[in-house]
Design a protein that fits this description.
With 278 residues, this protein is an alpha+beta fold. Helices cover 26% and strands 47% of the residues.
């Protein structure tokens, strides 16, 4: 019966090897904490100007009203903004959402964006980490801390994430709308278009404001939607803001959505409620 023991030994070695291979993937929570600590340390050394009426004089009139409305005047630009969300994400239309906490960190002097979310899929824990550094981006999805189910990087992903950091800037860091990398064009009293250039990436968006001066939507045609085969599908993207609130002394989005406006119909793939802003 010695062959049984040989088979058992081989299976044990194979199982152990597979476990080591699966465990060799990134610990996304640890990577997020490490990147967050590094971003905060770098931000401490940055001195940012106080935003005044003179600072916003060159912006289109509706954007000036928006900056005033948020309460950003008289305050220095924050080097980084850390937003905590309660999020619900959807993989496909009609499917149940995946809920969980999410952290979004943006630093703007040297562009850096982190988005980290934990949730559950098929009853197993899932971690998602977006990491934008300089002008390059990556997105990793890990299932049960073992399997990498998505690992996206490259020029298209980086361009897509450049749109995202522009969205974060407009919605959660209004004092940065004075940055020289932004080129503004007036549309009318409730709309303005903006182009953001960062390294090789040049992306554009349109801001929609209400009568009070709040941003109620942000749209762009320069972002790609991740498909089930790992490719990106270019589509019209919008992030309607459904509610505003006060966070860290500023009037900012309290509740919003992320929507792919496909020709065949809108797909709300994300819903976000702001839990705090630092």
């Amino acid at each position: 019966m010695s062959w049984i023991y040989w088979i058992a030994a081989v299976l044990a070695v194979v199982a152990a090897t597979l476990f080591i291979i699966m465990r060799s993937g990134p610990d996304l929570a640890a990577r997020f904490d490490e990147q967050l600590a590094a971003a905060r340390a770098e931000a401490k050394a940055q001195l940012q100007p106080v935003i005044t009426e003179d600072s916003i004089a060159g912006l289109p009139a509706p954007v000036q009203r928006y900056v005033r409305r948020t309460g950003a005047l008289g305050k220095p630009r924050p080097p980084c903004v850390h937003v905590k969300f309660n999020a619900e994400m959807f993989r496909k239309p009609g499917q149940a959402g995946m809920t969980g906490p999410a952290d979004q960190v943006d630093c703007f002097a040297k562009p850096k964006r982190l988005f980290f979310m934990t949730t559950r899929m098929f009853g197993l824990p899932v971690a998602v980490l977006h990491d934008y550094e300089g002008a390059s981006a990556s997105m990793i999805v890990r299932l049960a801390s073992l399997f990498t189910v998505a690992d996206l990087k490259g020029e298209a992903a980086s361009r897509t994430e450049t749109v995202t950091i522009l969205n974060d800037l407009c919605l959660f860091a209004p004092s940065w709308l004075t940055d020289d990398r932004l080129q503004w064009q007036a549309v009318d009293e409730k709309h303005a278009s903006v182009t953001f250039t960062n390294g090789p990436h040049k992306v554009s968006a349109t801001l929609y404001l209400n009568d009070e001066g709040d941003i109620v939507n942000f749209t762009s045609d320069d972002r790609g939607a991740l498909q089930s085969d790992g490719t990106l599908r270019m589509a019209h993207w919008s992030t309607p803001v459904l509610e505003h609130g006060e966070f860290s002394g500023l009037r900012l989005p309290a509740r919003g959505e992320a929507v792919w406006n496909y020709p065949e119909g809108d797909f709300i793939y994300g819903r976000f409620t702001t839990a705090g802003v630092q």
